[in-house]
Structure formats: C-alpha cells, structure tokens
Design brief:
With 497 residues, the chain is mainly alpha-helical. It has a four-stranded mixed sheet with strand order 1-2-3-4, with helices on one face. It has a two-stranded antiparallel ribbon with strand order 5-6. The protein contains 19 helices and six strands.
C-alpha cells in the first residue's frame, strides 16, 4: 500500500515538473518575441507582426488598408515626443533632465543591461522588484546625467536575489568597460566616477509572524524538493493554520488601570459622577421616534416624556410646580412636548448618540490607552511611540463617528482623569495642536498631521511606530502529531479546479 502511494505521488510530482518545464519554455518564447519586436529599444508594429507570424502566434495576413480621412501624425512606430517638464521643485527638475538625457542617448545607442536572477522557491511579483532596481540605479542615473559619457548602459549589470523573506538588488559596474569607454579626465569629475563605481545594495524586508518564520520556512540550496520533505512541510503548514489561536487581552490584566467602566451605557451605577453630570437625561429612555404625528402610539410613552420634561424644560430653578401648571393647560406630556419640541428634542438626541456611538468608542479608548501606557511603563516602547499609537487609534476611532458624536466624545473625554500625558488636552499640547481650530476626524481625507508633532511626521508616515507584537498562541507539533496530520490532511499534490 505504501509503495503504491509512493509511486502515485512520484508520478504526480513528475507531471508537475513537466508542466513547469512547459511554462518555462513558453515564457522564453514570449521573451524572445518581445526582444525581436524591439530591435533598437523601440516597438515596431511591422516587425512585431512578422515575428509573431514566424513563431506561429498569429496567421499571416494582408495588412489592413488605411481608413479614409487625414492620417494620424503619431503612431506606434512614431510616438509623440515628450512634453516639456512642468516640475516645480529642484528634485523634479533634476528627474526631468535625467529623463530627457536618457531619451537623447537612447536615440543614438540601444541600451542593454544584463539582469541575472538567482532562483528561489518564493514566487515574487515583478513590480515589487522593479521599484528596488530603480532605487539602486538612481545614483548611477544621476551620475550619468552629469557626466555625459561617464558610464554606458551596457556597462551596468544588475543581480536580483529573491528569497522567502526579502528581495536583494545588487548593481555592478564593469570597471574594464568604464576604463575603455571613458572620456578625457578633464571632462568628467572624479566624484562622479567614484559614485558610479559604488555598488549599492537595497534590502527589502517582508516581516512575517515569528511562528511562520520558525516553522514554515523551507530554505534549500537545491532546486528540486524531495517528496517526503514537501509532504512534511505541507503537514507543518496545515497544522499551524488549523491550531494557532489569537489571544485576547482584557483590561483586568493590566498593571496600571483607569477607574472607569463604560461597558453598560444605561447603567447609572457604573458611570462616574463627573461623567454623569454632563448629561441632563442620563439613563432615561432613548425611544425613537419621540413623537409620530400619524401614529402617536409609536412614539415615546407619556411617563418617559414626563421624565424628560422634568430634567430639561422644567429643571431647577423652575421646579415641578410649573410643570403641573403647564400639564393642566396642555392636558398630556405629549402635547406639552409638541409645544416645546425644539427645546427638549436636542437633549434626547444627545442621549441617543451617547448610548449608540460615544460609549463604545470611549470603552475602546480605555483599552488601548491602558495597553500602550503599560507597554511604555514596562520599557518595551518609548513615550513618543506610545503617544503616536494612541493618537492613531484615536483618529481611527473618531473617524467612525459622526460630527455630533465627535463633539460629545471630546466633552466626555475631557472630563475624565487619564494617565499623565495621555488625555486629549495633553496629547494636543504634545502634538502642537491649536484646539481653537476645529479638526473633524475623517479617515478618508489623508494623513492627519495635526495629531502628531511635526518632528515625527516622517517617522509616522514610514510606519516606524507600527505595532509588530502579535497576540498568537501556537504550540509546535510532536513527531507523532505530525505523522497524524500527514495521514489526515488533504492531498498536497491535488490540483484544484
């Protein structure tokens, strides 16, 4: 039984290798077609048609007849010349000058760069590599724009190394060709040649969870992977994805805590006195609608309306004696509410927003302020890092609220006692923010520079303070457990439709 299974797996493995070989040959053919279609670095539609016909991509046919009307000035074989640069900054003007210089040189000489890729088991998309190649060539490009014939395009060799965790791009200059083709020393500055002969290396890290790096990395020098090793690797991967868990951290686990409880928006006992005093009708009914003209029975009950009238329209110093006089005149609380609706309804609507939007948002702020403050006090992060993370969470949190809810959120948060430096007013002072200028938090409007000090803008935009801690729980399998996973997991060689 085991031998038959081995034969079956080996046959599937060989079929997969054959499919990969076919794909490689197809890619080589396509690259050859592209190379022959651009003889001088420019695309020629007539040559491309002949090349495609030669390789059997398209059938030979009579070229189409040009339609009636004025012929086009520019076409595929005669592109429109580049427009003058509209750059406004020194960096933009330098980049435009480099592009114009490269266009002039390409018309005289066909550029050619030798690019060699080191094979790896990782599948990385080309756009990720292209940006790193351009960044590594930037110094040589600028040097070439200053010294006209300092370095030729065919003297540059690029090596791209792709691994499971990073992309490395090395730029090498052939020193012998530089010496043979260089111009007179007096026409080129020595600093330009020294900068061009440098070999910069750009390393792009792609962070992964520690568990993935430890247990799911499969680095091998050989290009072929044995069937047993591949099955074991697939089993380990399957075990991780089916058994790891995300752990949660509650407020009770923090050493430093804030003495507030916002878990129940309707509980008067859990609300702090300074917070409860901000709202006239804290804990009263938030039934909607307050009044329905067509179906009055769908509105708020009379006893609830009476309680709202006591705390809004007839709050001290007016007293309840005036309320009794008004009720004798208007007969019911609903009729009295209809008469003074513009005075009573804003307070009822504020209570609705408090219960539905503001209280959950403040409960979230209590959690992440305690989390980052405890990380700061334990020495894991700096004070700036903790404040940046809290500011980011505040902006994301407030971005989900309406403008009315944000105003209520500010009022409640300002009345609470926070850790030193982590209140809204202290963080505004830390960021250099003028609170007299209103700033509505809208996450779709771009980078909120007013939330951070100007000295940290670049670091925040480059994700220097990004959270990398993962709340994961994973236990690696034993040998017996791994063998059991191999027997029960789906077939790794199965081709999905």
């Amino acid at each position: 039984m085991a031998e038959a299974r081995r034969v079956e797996l080996r046959r599937a493995y060989e079929d997969g290798l054959a499919a990969v070989d076919r794909d490689v040959k197809l890619e080589e053919t396509q690259l050859e077609i592209v190379r022959l279609s651009c003889p001088d670095g420019r695309y020629d539609s007539e040559i491309a048609t002949k090349v495609a016909t030669k390789f059997g991509v398209v059938a030979a046919s009579v070229p189409p007849k040009r339609p009636r009307g004025r012929p086009r000035i520019y076409g595929l074989n005669d592109p429109r010349p580049p427009r003058p640069s509209r750059a406004k900054t020194p960096a933009g003007r330098l980049r435009a000058a480099s592009m114009r210089f490269a266009a002039k040189r390409s018309s005289r000489r066909a550029p050619s760069c030798e690019i060699s890729a080191i094979p790896s088991s990782a599948r990385t998309s080309v756009p990720k590599i292209a940006s790193e190649i351009g960044r590594s060539l930037m110094e040589s490009t600028i040097a070439g724009s200053r010294g006209v014939d300092a370095i030729e395009a065919d003297q540059i060799r690029i090596e791209v190394a792709v691994s499971d965790h990073s992309i490395s791009v090395d730029t090498h200059i052939d020193r012998e060709l530089v010496e043979l083709n260089s111009v007179a020393p007096e026409t080129v500055e020595t600093a330009v040649i020294d900068a061009a002969l440098a070999e910069p290396t750009v390393e792009v890290e792609e962070p992964k969870p520690k568990e993935l790096i430890s247990f799911l990395t499969c680095d091998r020098d050989d290009t072929e992977v044995a069937i047993d090793d591949f099955v074991g690797y697939s089993a380990l991967q399957h075990h991780y994805y089916t058994t790891h868990e995300f752990t949660t951290i509650s407020r009770g686990e923090f050493e430093h805590r804030l003495d507030y409880d916002f878990t129940d928006a309707g509980s008067i006992e859990k609300a702090a006195p300074e917070v409860r005093a901000l709202f006239k009708g804290y804990g009263l009914s938030t039934h909607f609608p307050t009044y329905d003209q067509k179906q009055p029975e769908l509105g708020m009950k009379d006893e609830d309306l009476l309680e709202w009238l006591k705390v809004t329209l007839f709050a001290p110093p007016r007293g309840h004696s005036d309320l009794e006089n008004y009720l004798r005149e208007y007969d019911t609380p609903r009729a009295l509410y209809r008469m003074f609706r513009s005075t009573v309804e804003p307070d009822i609507q504020e209570e609705r927003i408090r219960v539905e939007e503001v209280w959950p948002a403040i409960d979230d702020r209590l959690w992440y302020v305690e989390l980052h403050y405890n990380d700061y006090k334990s020495g894991r992060i700096s004070l700036d890092c903790a404040l940046v993370r809290v500011a980011f969470e505040d902006h994301q949190n407030l971005g989900n609220l309406s403008d009315e809810a944000q105003a209520i959120w500010d009022k409640v948060v300002d009345a609470m006692n926070w850790f030193d430096g982590f209140s809204r007013l202290d963080m505004a002072k830390w960021a250099g923010r003028d609170l007299s200028v209103p700033h509505w938090h809208r996450t779709h409007e771009g980078f909120p520079g007013f939330m951070y000090p100007e000295r940290l803008h670049h670091a925040v935009l480059s994700d220097a303070f990004r959270e990398t801690e993962l709340f994961l729980k994973y236990t690696p399998p034993t040998d017996d457990e791994l063998e059991e996973v191999k027997r029960t997991m789906p077939d790794p060689f199965r081709v999905h439709d």
